[in-house]
Each structure stands twice: as C-alpha cells, then as structure tokens.
Inverse folding.
C-alpha cells in the first residue's frame, strides 16, 4: 500500500435517501438531510415499491392502482422532507431495488446513498432478506447505513468527533481510507485505524505479525495526520465484526468507515457476513465504500 501524503476533501453533491417508510428509516432521514445541508448538495428522497398489486386487478384498474400508489409514496416523501427545508427531487419506482439504484445513480450522478436497516437476524433475515444488504451489494457509490442501534439523536448528526476506520488490509482499503481521512480532516476529528486478527492460540511470532500489521496501518495515514486528526493505530484479536462493534461502543465512535472490494457478488465480506453484522449492530452510522479502481 502506498503511503498517503495528504488527504483530499470529499463532498457529497447528490445524495439519495432510500426509505421504506418504516421507523427504522427515520434516523437515517435525519442524517441524510443534515449531510445534504452541510455539503450544499442536491437531495433525492426515494422509495421503491414492490410490483405486487392485488390479484383481482387487471387492465385499466391495474394502471390506476399503480398511479395511486406512486402518488401516495411521493406525498409521504414530501412530508418526510418538509421539516428540513431542503430543496429535493422525489423519486419513486417499482421493481427490483438493485436496478433502480443503478438507474438513479447513473441518471442523477448519485455520490452517496443513505438508508436505514432493521438489523434482522437468523430466520427473519433469511425469509425477508435485507434491503440494506441489497443496497450494499449493488451500490457503486458509498453507502451510509444507519442501523437500529443508532437512535434518539442527542446531537447534530453532522457532528462527527470520533471516526473508526476498520480494515482487513486488502488493496481496496486505500480507496476507502480517503473517505475516513476526508471526514477527519474537515472536522479535525480523532481517527482510529483498526485491524482485527483472528483469535488463535499459540500462534508463532504473533508479536512480529502484530508489528507488521501496525506498520501497514500507519502507512495509510498521511505524513501530516498528527497535526489534524490525532491518529490511533489498534490491532485487536477475535471475531472481526464483534471487535469492530465493541471498539466503536467503547470509543464512542460517531462514524465507522469500511472498505468493500469491487467484486460485488463474490465478496468475502458478504459471504462471511462481516459487513452486514457491523452495519446492523453498530452504535453509530457506518459508511461503506466500494473500491471502483481495483481490477476485478
């Protein structure tokens, strides 16, 4: 990994807020609205309606049904945005969520997607799936997910003082770290770089391995990072998702940043469930950044 010499400020100019109108999405709405205000960006509140009409409708009645459902969704979105005083462009679609995200991202130049998640587990997740997980799998731009444990906001969502960048030290890290650095630099926030080793007993040269990993973490920080983000470098041992969540809770993190590989389908992050576990259990919002520069 190359040593980063400086941080680059990243601005989100076109923010897509995806909602299913559930309680879980209300806090995500607050975060997305505040980010849109902070970055002076264009705000796109959006809802995707499953294409499942009543079985007894057909022909003109079916067309009328979908028209009414679309207008009801538009009105709900307008009501959600109203209290924030944002200039917004409401988007409503039907069908497969992955296709809608790809279309809206391309047409409107979306550079950040914000959504909430219920944090379902076990059989409920298996049967019902997770909209947030579908978004994470299909989005090509960064995704800010606000999980069920991020609630009852006590301060401005834009106030970010402690940032946790968790990495497995794979090549896509270098792309994702630029976002963590940008947030930290703009706010002079404390930034922790965290890598989790698997918990194993009697590992030869464990101290040497930890020293190497810490060296790799330090190479991710710009040479002047100590002047504006008070960087901390931590090597932990255990289950990756649990260690990230536990550290965020102990450190009172305001934001977690994770990197995802370009390959969406065969990503080990999703096969192991690490990303979804962090997103659904984290005490703060999680920004996932997919590396669109690395070759598949």
């Amino acid at each position: 990994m190359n040593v980063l010499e400086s941080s680059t400020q990243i601005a989100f100019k076109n923010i897509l807020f995806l909602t299913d109108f559930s309680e879980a999405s209300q806090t995500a709405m607050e975060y997305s609205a505040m980010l849109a205000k902070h970055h002076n960006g264009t705000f796109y509140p959006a809802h995707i309606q499953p294409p499942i009409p009543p079985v007894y409708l057909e022909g003109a009645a079916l067309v009328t049904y979908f028209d009414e459902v679309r207008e009801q969704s538009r009105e709900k979105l307008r009501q959600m945005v109203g209290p924030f005083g944002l200039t917004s462009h409401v988007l409503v679609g039907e069908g497969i969520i992955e296709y809608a995200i790809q279309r809206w991202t391309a047409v409107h130049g979306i550079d950040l997607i914000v959504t909430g998640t219920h944090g379902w587990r076990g059989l409920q997740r298996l049967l019902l799936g997770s909209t947030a997980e579908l978004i994470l799998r299909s989005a090509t731009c960064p995704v800010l997910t606000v999980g069920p444990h991020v609630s009852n906001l006590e301060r401005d969502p834009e106030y970010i003082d402690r940032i946790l960048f968790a990495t497995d030290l794979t090549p896509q890290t270098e792309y994702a770290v630029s976002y963590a650095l940008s947030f930290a630099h703009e706010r002079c926030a404390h930034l922790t770089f965290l890598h989790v080793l698997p918990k194993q007993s009697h590992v030869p040269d464990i101290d040497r391995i930890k020293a190497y990993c810490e060296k790799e973490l330090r190479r991710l920080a710009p040479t002047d990072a100590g002047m504006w983000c008070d960087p901390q470098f931590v090597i932990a041992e255990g289950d990756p998702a649990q260690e990230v969540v536990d550290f965020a809770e102990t450190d009172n993190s305001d934001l977690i940043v994770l990197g995802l590989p370009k390959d969406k389908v065969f990503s080990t992050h999703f096969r192991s469930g690490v990303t979804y576990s962090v997103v659904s259990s984290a005490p703060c919002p999680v920004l996932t950044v997919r590396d669109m520069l690395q070759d598949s």
